From TrEMBL:
Entry keyword set: Isomerase, Rotamase
Cell membrane among keywords: no
Domain of life assignment: Bacteria
Originating species: Pseudomonas fluorescens
Signal sequence residues: none
Name this protein carries in UniProt: peptidylprolyl isomerase
Catalytic activity, reaction form: [protein]-peptidylproline (omega=180) = [protein]-peptidylproline (omega=0)
Pfam families with a match to the protein in the record: SurA_N_3
Originating gene: surA_1
Molecular function GO labels: peptidyl-prolyl cis-trans isomerase activity
InterPro entries from the UniProt entry: PPIase_dom_sf, PrsA_foldase, Trigger_fact/SurA_dom_sf
Major enzyme class: isomerase
EC number, as in UniProt: 5.2.1.8
Length: 247
């Protein structure tokens, strides 16, 4: 697990003591997401994208990013609530294994303790919030299982897009050809075209089975992404969500 991801999890699952105090950013089925929690997560959310709050000069861009961060927090809360409804249980062994991974990602024990303290946790509290995070992940995985594309779909997509199954190197070679031959003499153009033809032969030397495997992987990823969007949209539509921070 990337360190940034670990830190984001710490911010997203802020202790109840912090979530219940101060201004509220949103409510999800009556449960508060505090401005404190949003501020902490927003900073980590930007850091994960290689950005910093102080470097965002455009107010519209700032608002859009902040809304995206709040969306993520709302979705986490929805998934946690769904996990509770479904009675998802995470074993102690799995929780402690995840906590150990987090500790190793952050560094030594002292750094880990300081990081928890900064986020408002003690270790016992963080263990329980790790259980909550894993439960949310588990219910999301359960709800977004897809069978995958059937062979008829794979074959149809492959036949329709067969000409596009060549490697990206061919596209790059075409750009090089155009650039190199704009002001070139005939022999240079001929050499460039010869290279392009060679690249084309190599790029299209892909077996049908390789092409079908690529299509199968692509369609499976598309189905999975759509399933995730559909599940989150359904949870949102069936919940009471107040976005106070947007006002």
């Amino acid at each position: 697990m990337k360190l940034n991801t670990v830190l984001i999890l710490l911010a997203m699952w802020a202790p109840v003591a912090f979530c219940g105090n101060g201004p509220v950013a949103a409510r999800v089925n009556g449960e508060d997401i505090s401005e404190w929690r949003l501020e902490r997560y927003f900073a980590e959310y930007l850091e994960d994208q290689g950005r910093a709050v102080g470097n965002i000069r455009n107010p519209k861009a700032y608002k859009q990013l902040r809304q995206a961060a709040l969306d993520a927090l709302i979705d986490r809360e929805l998934l946690w609530q769904e996990a509770v409804k479904r009675g998802v249980v995470i074993s102690d062994a799995r929780v402690h294994s995840q906590v150990d991974q987090t500790r190793q990602a952050i560094g030594d024990a002292d750094k880990f303790a300081r990081r928890l303290e900064d986020a408002g946790f003690d270790e016992a509290g963080y263990i329980e919030y790790t259980r909550r995070e894993l439960a949310a992940r588990q219910v999301f995985a359960d709800l977004t299982q897809v069978a995958g594309p059937d062979e008829k779909q794979v074959r149809a997509f492959y036949e329709e897009h067969r000409a596009q199954m060549s490697r990206p190197e061919e596209v790059q070679a075409r750009h090089i050809l155009i650039k190199e031959t704009q002001d070139a003499d005939a022999s240079t153009v001929a050499d460039a075209r010869l290279r392009l033809e060679q690249n084309h032969r190599e790029a299209t030397d892909v077996s049908e089975q390789q092409g079908l495997d690529r299509v199968r992987t692509y369609l499976a990823r598309q189905q999975q992404a759509q399933a995730r969007r559909d599940v989150l949209a359904q949870l949102r539509s069936s919940s009471r969500i107040e976005r106070i921070d947007d006002d």
